[in-house]
Design goal:
Elements lengths: L4 E3 L6 H15 L8 H8 L3 E7 L2 E9 L5 E7 L8 H13 L4 E5 L4 H9 L3 E11 L14 E4 L4 H11 L10 H10 L9 E4 L5 E8 L2 E7 L8 H15 L5 E6 L4 H7 L3 E11 L1
GO molecular function: acyltransferase activity, transferring groups other than amino-acyl groups
InterPro entries: Acyl_CoA_acyltransferase, Bact_Acetyltransf, GNAT_dom
Organism: Micromonospora humi
């Protein structure tokens, strides 16, 4: 590691951090939003930072928030600089900052090498998601389910009720306050009310929903008694068609590694674009 300069990172380094994230995403796939300023700040400009520079190039970076519970850390190594123990050095530094606190490692560009390092150090994976992309060249044509009508969703109790009914049977579901959940959508500049949809059965009750943020399918849900009727497939297909008509060059979503819905999304034309994960040491 001769010839490297190690120093703290700051706002002026955001362009270099974006370049590092772009290189990692190109090599590994993962969450493309990592290159955006808000997520770069949240992941790589936490209160304690360290970057490795070769000349004017940022080749590795790590960031830690030791005041959270658990403490959190994110690191990146440029693909051209891997295999030189950078990952181990970044993890050593993060563990020093966290001291005896529990430490949660966040990666938006999952790699098998990183997982091997983390598990060898005693971390347990607590979360793994696939990042999926649809190129929108041929949006799927899914027939409308019998007896189901679909309309643009209104931010109100009906939409929240559809969300709660769709997800309440999932292990570990923690129901948020209705105002909080709706407020998060209302306050998000990327919320697409014209593409977010609610599905109703013959009696007018909500049986499913989808919310859209920018060109991302944020959440899709179908209430338990109405599953197996391709309501989810129809809602996603409607969104894909709407995004294509609006001129989007692709559509994205994330789905948990063990969620059977991943198979549905792939059958609708989504392809794997990487993974993201979390690892915890207690």
């Amino acid at each position: 590691m001769d010839g490297l300069t190690w120093r703290e990172l700051g706002e002026a380094d955001l362009p270099a951090l974006a370049g590092l994230a772009e290189a990692a995403l190109a090599a590994d796939g993962g969450l493309p939003l990592l290159t955006t300023t808000p997520l770069l700040r949240a992941r790589l400009l936490q209160p304690r930072t360290l970057g490795a520079w070769r000349g004017g190039d940022l080749v590795a970076a790590v960031s830690v928030d030791a005041d959270r519970t658990p403490a959190t850390a994110t690191g990146l190594v440029h693909p051209a600089w891997r295999g030189r123990e950078f990952g181990a050095r970044l993890l050593d530094w993060a563990e020093e900052q966290a001291a005896d606190a529990d430490l949660l490692l966040t990666t938006e560009t999952w790699t098998a090498g990183a997982e091997a390092l983390f598990t060898a150090r005693g971390y347990s994976r607590t979360f793994l998601e696939w990042v999926l992309r649809h190129d929108l060249h041929a949006p799927p044509d899914v027939p409308a389910p019998d007896g189901v009508t679909v309309r643009p969703a209104t931010l109100g109790p009906e939409l929240f009720g559809a969300y709660r009914a769709s997800f309440a049977d999932r292990p570990g579901f923690a129901e948020p306050a209705v105002d909080e959940w709706l407020g998060d959508l209302r306050d998000d500049d990327d919320f697409r009310p014209e593409l977010s949809l609610i599905a109703r059965g013959p009696d007018g009750d909500a049986v499913g929903f989808v919310t859209v943020l920018g060109d991302w399918i944020d959440q899709v849900g179908v209430v338990p008694d109405w599953r197996g009727r391709r309501i989810g497939a129809y809602l996603v297909a409607r969104v894909l068609g709407g995004l294509a008509e609006a001129g989007a060059d692709g559509a994205w979503l994330c789905v948990n590694d063990d969620n059977p819905a991943a198979g549905l999304y792939r059958r609708l034309g989504f392809h794997d674009a990487g993974r993201r994960a979390r690892y915890l040491r207690r």
